[in-house]
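BUG: 3D viewer hangs when loading the predicted structure for this chain

Environment: internal workstation, default settings.
Expected: structure renders.
Actual: progress bar stalls at 90%.

Input used:
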Amino acid sequence: MKLNDVLRNIKKATGGETLEDSIYANVSEYLDSGSYAINRVITGDIHKGFPVGRISTLFGLSQSGKSLIAAQTMIAALKENRIDVGYIFDSEGGSLVNTFKQAGVDMTKIIHIPVGSIEECGVQMIKVYDELVTARDEFLKDPKENDNIRAMCILDSLGALKSEKLVKDAVNKDQMVQDMGLTAKMKNNLMNVLMMKVVRSNATLLVVNHEYQDPSAMFASKIKLMGGGRGIEFASHVILQCEKLMVKSSDTEFLTGRETDADNVGFYKGNKMKFFSTKNRCAKPCFQAQVYIDFTSGVSRYDGLIEDAVKFGFLEQVRGGYICKSYSDKKITYRELVSDPKIWDTFIEDFNKKSIEMMSYSNGMEKELDELGV
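Structure tokens produced before the viewer hung:
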């Protein structure tokens, strides 16, 4: 039998494609996070964000912006007509209803599914993803007769889910029973099951998770630990570690771009949050961005880019502000810089090219291969 005949038979039997042609192997779409700086941490490209058809995880302590960024991503996807429907699997009763309403999205396109245990969550999520996989398969077979159902899901949160069995044992035996790793095992199993369902359905899954401290660690680590077993670490295409730094309304130093004293007590008008990629299959990991979220006006598109814009030479930092020579010779305050798109329009695409080059996995590889004579 000829090689081509064998390859043709295997392709027919398995449905396999070449790696380049496979729609499941390549990520070609991304969902905007609402922040250029966060998009950049994920992909290196300010115009891209969370990879479509993959699992991404945001984890951190309480009020570190995890749920807000997930919600913002769904809002942007709905407003830009990137998805037809969004599903929120809510284990905390904390869905940001007002955030969605104030954003002006069609609330009928957001389906809320409360889940009280890891068992219930697993059943509900698998039901939804099985339907989405079936719809995707039918669309790929006959695009003329079937709709391309574009969906996105949020699980908020994985860390809050506990095993129903533990509760039943507590009731039946009249005492709380040790977990013995049961909940973590069930979460691992769920993530293993969902991994390829998310890929085949092309329905992005954003998982919100909790951070916990390791009491046995001798030294503090920049990379914190996530709850819920190792399954979510293996399944995630991108993992963002989220931290917060409180900012006072009276802190004028922050408004000029300098660091604020987070230990001072006073009236706070927003959070300055750090997003650090601990795992990344889209771009190099271990890049971070600091983004200020104002309680009144929300997230600035441009905050978090300033430091690297200075490093790249597009901005010059001076006392009390910045100079952007491509825009004006006059001093620009921090507040003006994060709120005026006209300033950034003069250099943002050149900035983005440098960013992609710096954060791409292939950056420098060709030069090294040439030096090795390969």
